[in-house]
Structure formats: structure tokens, C-alpha cells
Amino acid sequence: MIAARSLRASALRNVIAKRSISTTPAALSDKLFVHRDTSDNNGNVKFEFTSENMERAKEIMAKYPPQYKKGAIMPLLDLGQRQLGYTSLPVMNAVAKMVEVPPMRVYEVATFYTMYNRDPVGKYFLQLCTTTPCQLCGSTEILKTIEKDLGIKVGETTKDGKFTLVEVECAGACVNAPVLAVNDDYYEDLTPATTVKVLESLKQGKPIKAGPQTGRHTCEPKGGLTTLKGEPTGPGFMVRADL
């Protein structure tokens, strides 16, 4: 009995000894979490809102009680990014001073949300959605088309500084997939041909109308309406007259 147990224990040890340990490779990118000083992005560079944006900043801060001024961090960062083009260290420091919090509190916000660009981006910031719905509708081909037309890869900016291309997760417009966000505008229902058309219009500084590029209105069915074609019924429809 004891010998049998010893054999089973020995066999179990051999199995355990042969098991391989699987680990996930460390992420080498420091883009979102580590700051590196540059000549125009360091603690000695000063940032100030323009007079117009300062008025807007005051309007934003007025929405929060004095003891909760830190609630304005996100909209103020967005305002600073729109003025400068990206969320630099000076922008973050200026916001921290305005809301009276340690700068680290602002750094934490800016590094958590991907909406804040830590590095300069082009005049036209291209964000292509490549999540499942868009991928199934052809976003892979759209990505190849953009890279070929602009001569850049994901994460790069064209030499003239006009275009920066990144991939994003969900753009929230799955019914209009594939979707490309250009700054604040969405270009939807894209094909390789319409993608080139959008890019060419941007190169010329004359952006075409945003939205679906197939002619359909917003997110109506591609094949046209199948229900709710007539006038809506009024009050009392199909209700007994004696009620």
C-alpha cells in the first residue's frame, strides 16, 4: 500500500516537473505612461490659454462647486489640447494650477484616457476603427488603403505634418461600419474608393461632407425603410371608443 502511494506521488512530481510556465511578454511601449522631455514639451515651457479659451475655461469651471474644481480636469485638458494640438506637459501643469491640485493628479487623468494625445499629431488626426464590426465590414482594406495613399503606417505622421494615423477600438458607430474619424467628424460606410476620395479632399483642404459615404441618411437601413413608412397613428388608435 505504501509502495503504491509512493509510486503515485513520484509520478505526480514528474508531471508537475514537466509542466511549462507560460508568461505574457512585457509591453515595451511607453507612449501613454512615460514622459520624455523635448525642446517644446518640458517643465520649463509655459502654456497659457488664449483670451477666448480662458473665457471658455472659466465657463467650464463655473459648472463645478469650488470644493470640486478638480471635476473640470477633463474638459480643461480637452480645451488645452484643441488649442495646442496635443496634451503637453505644460498644458497639464497649467490645468493643475487652475483647479488647484498636485500636477500628478492631472498626469494620472491624461495618461489613462486615450483621447488625450501625449505627442503632437497632424492637422488631420485619422482614427480608424478596427474592432470586430468594422473589421467584418472591411476595415482591414481601409487601413491598407490609407497606408498606401499617405505612405505611412499606424502610429506615424506624414512628413508634411498633415496626417496622423492610429487604430482605435470601438468608434460607437457599428451600424455605419467601417468608420474613420477625422478630428471630430465621422466618415462612415467606407470603401477603398470612397476612402481615397476623403483623403484627397483633405489634402486639398476642402473636406467633403462627413457621415455615410454611400448616400444613405445617418443609419437608416441600407436597403431602404421596411417599416414606419406612413404617417404615425394618432392618440386612441385601436382603442375601444367607450374607453
TrEMBL record:
It comes from the Eukaryota. One of its GO terms (biological process) is mitochondrial electron transport, NADH to ubiquinone. Gene3D superfamilies: Glutaredoxin (3.40.30.10), NADH-quinone oxidoreductase subunit E (1.10.10.1590). Keywords: 2Fe-2S, Iron, Iron-sulfur, Metal-binding, NAD, Translocase. Its cofactor is [2Fe-2S] cluster. GO terms for cellular component: catalytic complex; membrane protein complex; mitochondrial inner membrane. Binds 1 [2Fe-2S] cluster. [2Fe-2S] cluster binds at C129, C134, C170, C174. It holds the Pfam family 2Fe-2S_thioredx. GO terms for molecular function: 2 iron, 2 sulfur cluster binding; metal ion binding; NADH dehydrogenase (ubiquinone) activity; oxidoreductase activity. NCBIfam families: nuoE_fam. Belongs to the complex I 24 kDa subunit family. This is Thioredoxin-like [2Fe-2S] ferredoxin-domain-containing protein. It comes from Actinomortierella ambigua.
